Structure formats: C-alpha cells, structure tokens
Amino acid sequence: MDPLVLGGLVALFTIAVLFSGVSVALGLLIVSGGFLVVFDGMRSLELMPEIFFGKLNSFALLSIPMFIIMGASIASTRAGADLYEALERWLTRVPGGLVVSNLGACALFSAMSGSSPATCAAIGKMGIPEMRKRGYPDGVAAGSIAAGGTLGILIPPSVTMIVYGIATETSIGRLFLAGVIPGLLLVALFMAWSIYATVRSGNIQVLTVSTYTWRQKFEILPRVIPFIVIILGVLYAMYGGIATPSETAAVGALLCIVIAVVIYRLWSPAGLWLILRDSTRESVMILFIIGAAGVFSYMLSSLFITQSIAEWIGTLEVNRWVLMGAINVFLLVAGFFLPPVAVILMAAPILLPIITVAGFDPIWFAVILTINMEIGLISPPVGLNLYVINGIAPDISLKTILTGSLPFVACMVIAIIILCLFPGLATWLPDYVMGAAT
Hints:
Layout: H1 3-19, H2 24-40, H3 47-56, H4 63-75, H5 79-91, H6 97-113, H7 116-133, H8 138-148, H9 159-168, H10 172-178, H11 180-200, H12 214-219, H13 221-239, H14 245-262, H15 269-302, H16 305-315, H17 320-337, H18 340-357, H19 362-377, H20 384-392, H21 398-421, H22 424-434
Helix pairs in contact: 1-2, 1-16, 2-15, 3-15, 4-6, 4-14, 4-15, 5-6, 5-7, 5-13, 6-7, 6-8, 6-11, 7-8, 7-20, 8-11, 8-20, 8-21, 9-18, 10-22, 11-21, 13-14, 15-18, 16-18, 17-18, 17-19, 18-19, 19-21, 20-21
Protein name: TRAP transporter large permease protein
Subcellular location: Cell inner membrane
Domain TRAP C4-dicarboxylate transport system permease DctM subunit: 15-424
C-alpha cells in the first residue's frame, strides 16, 4: 500500500480510537499494535515493550515529575491568593489595575504551577468575584482568567516545552528561553484587550479603585517573594551551567515543599500525601503518553509514513508560509480535542522534518505550536479552562464565558502572526544567552 494512503488510514483509525473514550496512551498503543501486526506481522509486537521502556529511559524525563511536584506544592497553598492580593495592591493605580493584576497573577502563578486548570481555580476564586463586584463585565472577568491560565504552558518552566524537547531532541534550555518574550507579548495583548473592553463597557469607575498604603503593599511581599526567587533561581542554575534541568527541577520541587510547610503551615501528613499523590498521577499519565507516543512514532517510521509525508511536502510547489498556515490549522483542530502533551508527542515526529525542510527554526516552531495548544484550552468542545471557570463561577453562563474568551483567542492569533513576521522574538533570547545554534 502507498505510504501516504496508509498514513491517511492511520490518521482515521487514530481519531476513531481516541474518540471512543479510551485514554490517549492506550489508544496510541492500540493503533500502533494493530498496524504493526497487519503490515509487519506478529513478531513486530515483540519490539513494542522495548520501544516503550526505551522511550522512558531518559534522565531528562526526571524533570517532568519534579516540576509537577513543584507546581502541586504551590497549588495546594494560598500562594495564588497571596500573589493576586500582592499584585492588586501594587497595581491599583494602573488604569484597569484589577484586571491587569489578575492577568499578572495568572502569568506568575501559571509559571510556578505549570497547570492551567490550577491557575484558573486559584486566581479565579478571588479574582472573578472581585472584578464583578467592582463593575467589570462578566465576559472580561471570566475570559481574562481563562486566558491567563493558559500561559503556564508557554512561560518557563513549562512541562510541555520539556515534552517537545524530548520528542524532538531539542535543547530544553533554549525552549524555556524561547517562551519568555512571546509569553510577555501574550500577557501584554491580554492586558490591552481587557482594558479596552472595560473602557468600552462604559463603566469608567472601575478603572479607578481605592489606594493602599505603603505598609499594606510591603507586608504582603514576604509571602510572594520566596516563590519568585525559586523560579529565578531555577532558571539561573539552569542557564548558569550550575545544574541540568532535571537537577534544578528536583531542587525547586524540594524548596517549594519546604516553603509550603514553613510559610503556609502545611504540616499535616494528609496535605503532603495529597501533593505527592496528585503529582504521581499526573506524572504517570504524561510518562505513559510519552512511552506510547514512542511506539506510535516507531510504527509511523517503520511503515515509512513519516518519511513519505515529509518527502511529499518537500515536492509541493507552495509557499512555505502557506504550508505553515496549513500546519497551524491542523494544530488548532487537534488542540480542540486533545491535551497539549498528546498533540506534541503525536505531531512533533511528523512535523519536525517538514518544518526543517521548509526552512523553519524548530525552537521558533515550538512557540507557535504551544500558542496553538493554548487556544485549544479555551476553545470548545473540550476547552478545559472554560469548564473550570464555570465551576468556580456557576452564575456566569458558559456562553458568556465562551464569548468573553474569544477575544483572547484573537489575541493569541495576533501573537502567532507577530511571531511569523518577527521570528527573532522567540529566537533572540536563546541565542543571546546560550549562543547561536549550530
């Protein structure tokens, strides 16, 4: 059978299996095993366990559970509430200061926790009622938190960037740095739209709120600064050549647990057990998907599907930006239905040779891919963040939340266009800090 036709069949069967309700990892193993048996015979199944565990035999993978523990430690405390309160006190004089402080809190908390739903829940529980009480439109209040929660998969340290780096054998350090400026760009676009939408609503009074004394501003800082110092310390250790990403993640996880115990009095064994239990569940889920995706990639390569697709794309006489547009549409649709980790692990082995042949930078493409995954987090039918917001603010209809989040989707699309016009926004910082890639 022609490899391109076979690739189409694999795509159809994969979609069908994943929509059947089975887990992503199990679905990938079912599809991989089925096609290997049909086209390579039963003996090909003997390789599946070796490939599965071989994909997990990487020291770099240790950073995933460590960063997840780091995030779970923060999410289990009042860190989100304190971060929100601190930014509100310091940014209250900024026009639209409350929505700006909410987005800033989302950016920092999501960077620390790496979890989009946790960010929405932690910041939204305080931010949404406060914004509504002060007259902000419901759409702005809900949409800004939903969009702000997505920033954790772009702003370092990011688990999805680690997964992309492992899947494509790309420097994780460079990927982290590549997400900094685009992440700040998204925050700026989110803030600009939120302020504009608030002003357009006609309730100008919400742009001027009560002031805080200097004492009130400084008394909240001791609860927030340690977490920010940990993030900066992790990044400094990584880029200063002091430790590997896995080692810095382990130290960061330990320090976050210590801070949760010392500052937030998380003494109870039940609380610590909850952190470890939830972290283990999420880590196993991600690692299971990584192993299954390794088998899936082997199946695609063994049947010459990946090579044939890349070769076929290379023969197309189309502008490379038309190709990139088609890739973005594919990623966008995939992100509507699948979690970011699954999309990256399934698509990266196929797309990497294509974008390389087309002359695109894999580091830059990682940022484009990640922003597409962010869009999926606030877009139906899955749109996990939309349902989290609806859960913490049930009196705001899902339609209002969706309508409020759509302008932020437009902001993400604008960010992708800006990055296409100015790719240096993603590649300059990694090249400056770590030297030009060879």
